[in-house]
Amino acid sequence: MTHPTSPNTPDDFARSWDARYQGATAIPQPALVLRQWPHLLPAGGTALDLACGLGGNALWLAERGFRVSAWDLSPTAIARLREGARLRGLHLDARVRDLIAVPPSPESFDLILVAHFLDRDLAPSIAAALCPGGLLFYQTFARESRSSRGPTNPAYRLARNELITLFPDLTIRAYRAEGRLAAPESGLGDLALMVAQRI
Asked: Is 143 among the domain residues?
């Protein structure tokens, strides 16, 4: 889930995303950052899909044996995700949660996935929520891009190399931000992707 605008309240923000999710017809594919580096996934443990939207990442991780928590501000998204998990026979903890007001607790997850969500002030809490050895898989839109996909407000897009600098206490294990040099068919032209580990 990406911040496309600056709503007046969390309720306004939730309503705007509820309206988008009500019109969605399919669970999205798992994030490119997961598909790029699946060999970096831990063998199992606890995983958080933060700002999960319709939950394509949460379902993908649950299918691989993780104990998944999935949080989003949108009640519609969480309801759709719960139904999707039920239909697939998967167990996960999907709940409505204001991530800014109630960030994850320290040392509570072996893996955290963040896709298309950017709140810079939340970065220290995300890093702290990793257990020792835990991995952060992060992707979102960059200001340097091949297309107009993603938010129009540059405040919700990453500056050059910014994703690395947001998590100075983590060890970078993989990073890609190819911008306009990316092959058009790769899907990388608008994104920055990173896997980082708490040592």
From this structure: yes
